[in-house]
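User: Could you check the structure of this?
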Amino acid sequence: MLKLFRFMDLRFLLATLATVVITGACTGDTPASDPPPAAQGDDIFLRTDTRLVEGVVPRGATLAGILSTHSLDGALSVRLIDAVRPVFDPRRIRVGNAYRFVVNNDGSLRRFEYHVDNDQYLQVRSAAADAGSFDVEMVPYVKERADVAMRGFIDPDHTSLVASLNGGGENVMLAIKMAEVFGGEIDFNTELRQGDQFDVLFEKYFREDEFAGYGDVVAAEFVNDGRRVRAFRFTIPGDEEALYYDEQGRSMKRQFLRSPFRFEPRVTSRFSHRRLHPVLGVHRPHLGVDYGAPTGTPVIAVATGTVVSASRSGGSGNMVRLRHKNGYETYYLHLSAFAKGMSPGARVVQGQVVGRVGATGLATGPHLDYRMRKNGTFVNPLLEHRKLPPGDPVPEQHLAAFQTARDQALARMFSAPSAADAPGILAQ
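Assistant: Sure, the predicted structure tokens are below.
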């Protein structure tokens, strides 16, 4: 985690040392030892007037506790925390995040920095005009963006999208982004086949050649069971939000996602009018689809809609019920917890987390029972999805611009640097 601050080491060092010439640095939480005697012609060693402290937040720590651990004066710590509060909530410090600060030999604080996330860090500096006060700000990290292309396969060694991306050096967050792009066309929980393959062009951010997160998927192609599906990110002039379209300019977004998960959970029981109930031991209709998943797995709304209810519902356990346009409703059963804001009348958007997988009600283990009702009748979600039309296409007057962007993205996707070569490569 200390590498997170590498990019500003020189600036930090210059700001924290006295105006002396040194050839060694004092690190850790102790002052430098006495300098060796200088011989004629040797560099002159001078003691610094500060001590540098670096570390990572331990479990159960508070900002006040960290400052106290490193022997900062209690009154000084109080002033620093009070100065920080309007800019950053001190209770938000997280285990494993890096921090560093410099203390003058008289016990006053010269500078404090704390890594907040991949986008910014907290900086506290002693105010030049008043030694007892501080200047506090959130500072964005300087990042470089690379457009990276990758090809992956679904095969015996890589049986899921996540496994294939991991094999190529990427991680689960890129899988989530791809699942969101193709969510209206491919159910990554049930429809992947041996021999499937994909190409993807995506933005990848670096800070001092260290990975700092993913940007947007620019373009992607997925060959699923012999069917080729392509997606291109495009912003219609005048619109604020970029959307995804197929190569003909048709929207990739449908009213409903194919799954109430971003990816991975498996179907354990399908829609049926006569299924042996695993708890009751009798045959009865099962008017939904069961997905097996670990307790706590996020469950997402398959479509934009309104919360009808979010409460305990007998054998269904904790259940969220949503109402959508065109006479549709969706149900999410056996949840371990509801997401914040799930109150009757609240609006939810497609892809928003509504709860987490659990085993409440009549359940033998953690899973989600997902149901869909149309005009008062329960329907098979896996079949109903195929009947739904896509969203609006690229308007005709902007089709030429889309086609140009599409062709450029395709050329970059099949000729861009590979993921392994990404660090240090700037986007064009």
